[in-house]
Amino acid sequence: MNARFRAALGHDFADPGLLRQALTHPSAPGCEGDAFERLEFLGDRVLGLVVAEMLLECFPDVDEGGVGRRLSLLVSREALIEVAAETGLDRALARARDPGAAGARMAATAAADACEAVIAALFLDGGLEAARQFVRRHWQALVERHAEVERDARSRLQEWSHARALGQPVYTVRSRRGPAHRPEFEVEAALADGRSARGSGGSKRAAAAAAAAALLERLE
Description:
The chain has 9 helices and 3 strands.
């Protein structure tokens, strides 16, 4: 195992066999059923739990639907591939070698699956806290990057609209519900050509940002 990946783990395994299993692809030479698929299944659930926890902390004004959309991006195969490369996990994985472009794509997919398996191995060996520390350390930058994009959504929508001579986007509060101490606003962002989207949040500003982000998703 490379030193980079060992350092990224941040955990000494009481049962090294768990980590070995997490890093073994079914195609690995000599693999006789002791591969990572079952661990991958568990790791997917643990990753979702910890990232959901991070999102609730980072986006306190975003409704359930908005948090769900962000969660799906942050636990996607693309995010897992990025973390696998950043930690060196992709180089620690035991698998059959495939030549050419197809082999590179398969390697990236295998690394994403193994990343989930490693999270499960951490959970089984060191409990939720060991898995949580790994996920928080290596997903924090992804969450912050997403938050930065979100904060900038209104500016980006304005630039998109002006570049196409559509003028300033219009934001309209469509509803307000909930008690005074915990209101929930729904805001619609609309362009001059009639395209629009809605977003919700605990303040008009947060709801407008969510609406801008939703409209940008449709436009882009």
